[in-house]
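User: My collaborator and I are trying to settle a disagreement about how two of our proteins should look. Neither of us wants to argue from intuition anymore, so we agreed to look at predicted structures for both before our next call. Could you fold the first one, then the second, and keep them clearly separated?

Assistant: That sounds like a sensible way to settle it. I'll keep them separate. The first protein:
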Amino acid sequence: MDDPQHPHLSRVFRSGSRIPGRRIRARGRGMSAVELEERSVPDGAPAERLDKVVARLFGVSRGRAMEWIADGRVRVDGKRAPKGTPVRAGARISVEKPPPDQPAPQPELPIRIVHADAHLVVADKPAGMPSHPLKPGERGTAANALVGRFPELAQVGPSAREGGLVHRLDSDTSGLLLAARTEAAHAMLRAQFTARTVEKGYLALASGEIHAGGEIALPLLHDPRDPRRMQAASDAAYAEEHGARAAVTRFLPKERKGGFTLLEVEIPTGVMHQIRAHLAFIGHPLAGDALYGGPDLPGLPRHFLHAARLAFRHPDGSRARYESALPQDLLQVWTTLP
């Protein structure tokens, strides 16, 4: 049934083997040692895109190969090239390998371990803690905390900085975070996120009264006016032209009070700021979300968003489900609303 006060909320929103090679170490002023490694594409090898060649020749994951290429660390016959460049037999591929940038172990950081077994770790991340470092040496992240407790996480995944994390949460979003303890588990879990079969449930406090559940299926892209923000693209041609990412947000109102609505939210996709941007688009930004125009509330120094549920197929074949209750700061805000 359509909501007479908010008819838009009852609709669905849519828009249309390693090869021998040379190894050199170089050190510049003020720099740590840099390892340059060069390998040649074997005779008779078929033409193949650069990221695949780098992964095979240097024995790394394709994700790591793409990271090196994006950072400008890979050269083909002495010249930088994009990841899709066709590379033929005889080409010389050199890689400037970065210094180790694994998260520094910080077991003292506060993070609650919800579950741990031989395959994975589920943690409850507090608000104000980034998921993982964005640059070498950065500390204070969930990845630092987890590597401090489970050192093997530093060796898992396509990026050394991520400490085995399978997904991410915004710094000010609290809740459940999943990490893999083995490469096999990481690959299996990531495949589920890619296939959109992981159940990701959130609790969110939206501004305004929402009387009906709905689905927002609008692609998201970076706002050209403010790169910190994401914006929904309701025009299919514009979305395609600007490389917007598909995003689907489903919501259901639980309770209303004080001009706000507590929502249960599910997202099969996982785009940056997805819930925040989608709710702002329909005129109901999150409480405390200044970036997206959300109103302030006393005692709320962050946006009201908590990752409360994760359900997926465990590497052992069973169905796994984990939950996290609303943290004290958000619970206090909710209970004191008039």
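The second protein, kept apart from the first:
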Amino acid sequence: MRAIAASPARPRARPSAASVVKHRSSGIVRAGKSTRGLFDDVLDMLEGGKKLRRWYGSDSSVGARGSRANDDADDAADDPSVDDAAPEDEDEDVELDVPRTAILVTNATGTLGESVCARLILAKANVVAEVGERERASAEGRFGPYARLASDAWSVGARLNGVRAVVACGALERGFVDACVRRKVKHIVLVSSAKSASNGLFASAEEKARWDRGREAECAASGLAVTVIRPTRVKEAPGGSKEIVFAQGDTASGEITVEDLAETCARALTKPPRAGTALTFEVSNGSEARSERDDWNALFNSLKA
């Protein structure tokens, strides 16, 4: 496993545009139904490399042999100047002079984190998946060659080398936000349940971490561009069937599927607020079916930082 900074960036392609039928009432904007897409099928049984390669095809630019990403990785492997560092070497908190193109997803083996990674992989983003040290082996099988892994046993600075944006799905460890500032991260997308009803004894560790009210304040005080997404109750079910509703002012209610929440996180990365400001909104599934096309621009343009 190479240190995050040593791995070259993969070529990126914009996610397919989908459109939105919107209404405005009581500060709520709705997005309507799209047909079931490739992401939904892949996420049903996320199996990593083989599954994704089957969908993309053997000549895909994502992780397939002959792609730019893999060719560059092979060249680096043959280069004696590139050290195949062990985890303890990767832990060094040294800022490397590398392009900041990657998106770090924290708690990438959690339900939401895994879904966000899958969405970004399908968008051909340069993904860094933060995983527990004990989960690295299973994560390698889960994500295959389509995401670089960063162990949470490494220093925060080492995990952030080459990272331009972060999707924070779980707990924020001490010093994480300060390290984002130090490493010149441009945008943090924070999933927060600080003002949502809890799921009580059935909540996962990932969900419990999102109840921490201090996470929002810490990110807002960082001076970075911050997007705070407050989902209603998160439901582990296939997404894509119900409209997506944005609201502000703690007016949202109901629930949202984890897949639709993951898609919202991925879309939020393309709409960062100005540096030093925080854009906060609630997201839920509405009662109507999603329309054939989604206009995410309309949803995000309706929000006020």
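Some points you might bring to the call about the second protein. The first helix runs from residue 38 to 44. The two ends are 40 Å apart (CA to CA).
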